[in-house]
Design brief:
Layout (H helix, E strand, L loop, with lengths): L1 H5 L3 H13 L6 H11 L4 H13 L4 H10 L6 H16 L6 H8 L22 H13 L3 H11 L10 H8 L6
Helix pairs in contact: 2-3, 2-4, 3-4, 5-6, 6-8, 7-8, 8-10
């Protein structure tokens, strides 16, 4: 704990923070989260080391929700990175309280436009296909049945338009009898 407080090199401090999380030093958790905030958006590899340690230990939920609440489309490059990192944590931790946030992200004014501007799956100008698929898949995995029903219908027809990065969409649908 002393090393986390006194270390000045962000990469060394990230390694110390990750080690404290891995040895389950609960007393240092608030200092670890403070450090994550400190390097967030500044030293990406140090942030990833720290965040990954929290997430892997099953203690990243609160911080992931905090990040999700603070970022919004159109994502900057760093916001895109944050969104990509927190979505799997929110799903793994079954953070249903993130559904309104994910709905907001998915409902960005450009979210339903294809590159030609005419499709339900498409590529929003401010989000890559992969991120959009991850957002929509996470919504379904967290229980957004209205979205699942909307996606299920077109996929069950001949000549269906398959969304980009279908692994997110299929994982989101799960194993319902309707699927």
């Amino acid at each position: 704990r002393t090393a986390l407080a006194s270390e000045t090199d962000p990469w060394a401090k990230a390694a110390i923070a990750a080690a404290l999380v891995r040895i389950d030093d609960a007393a240092s958790e608030s200092a670890v989260v403070r450090f994550c905030h400190e390097v967030e958006g500044k030293v990406s590899s140090a942030w990833e080391t720290c965040f990954d340690a929290l997430a892997d230990a099953g203690r990243g939920r609160a911080y992931a929700l905090d990040i999700a609440q603070r970022i919004a489309p159109p994502f900057t490059s760093w916001g895109d990175t944050l969104a990509r990192r927190v979505i799997p944590v929110l799903v793994r931790e079954h953070a249903t309280e993130a559904l309104p946030i994910l709905r907001r992200w998915g409902a960005h004014p450009d979210a339903a436009k294809s590159p030609r501007g005419d499709g339900p799956w498409g590529t929003p100008p401010d989000m890559r296909d992969h991120l959009f698929g991850a957002i929509q898949g996470a919504r379904m995995r967290l229980g957004d049945e209205a979205l699942a029903a909307q996606v299920r219908g077109p996929l069950g027809t001949p000549n269906a338009v398959v969304p980009a990065y279908p692994e997110h969409w299929v994982a989101g649908l799960g194993s319902s009898e309707g699927d």
